[in-house]
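Quick illustration, no need to memorize.
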Amino acid sequence: MSQNDYQESVELPFISHLIELRNRLLRVVLCVLVIFLGLASYANEIYSLLAGPLMQHMPKNSTMIAIDVASPFFTPFKLALVVSIFISVPFILYQFWAFVAPGLYKRERRMILPLLIASTILFYMGAAFAYFVVFPLVFGFLTAAAPEGVAVMTDIAKYLDFVLALFFAFGTCFEVPIFTIVLVWTGLVTPADLADKRPYVIVGAFIIGAVLTPPDAISQTLLAVPMWMLFELGLLCSRLFVPKPDSDYQTPNVAEMDARLDKIEEQEHK
């Protein structure tokens, strides 16, 4: 085989992978676009639903405000786009799985697909926990903490950025069991090592809670404690994924290997 033929044989699979990646990305964009077009006409209603936890705790006759001129128009559509991506997550993960699965071993395929499904469910659970549990407590605390004579009137764009950050924080932190299982499955750590580091994990959970949440003890605790509990859950489940030595593989005998090499050399000399 000439050098040109070899280069072409290497480049063709690479180009085919790029084409497949492009096609799957186009499918993802099309899926998000279709969902967005369906939600666009309900953008204001979706924003009202998102603002519900705050509006319930705002003073009577108080409303949200829009500082920028275009905020009343663009902010609900921005939320509709984010919701479209949020709804499309299972389809996005499926496209990712379909792209990488052919290059994985059978054992890896058996592991990654359940992990993708579990990570999706946990992310949704984290977002739901933020909306139904954290938001009422946080907004109740923040509105009650306003000094006397200060009217609580939140800008709609800043409120959206605030709640999206919380959604992302809680959704990501609820992935702790997946991170724990992957660490053990890949052999980087053992369950015993993670158990020994439990005090550091607890301190780290509260530090992450302080960084990712508003400056109040309630939201920090509401993020740190579930992270700790999810770490314990991941630690418990990770014991089922400890790498086991391959029973079909046997450590080669050094003397036998040397004898085989000598035999090959003798045959080459002949």
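The mean pLDDT is 80.
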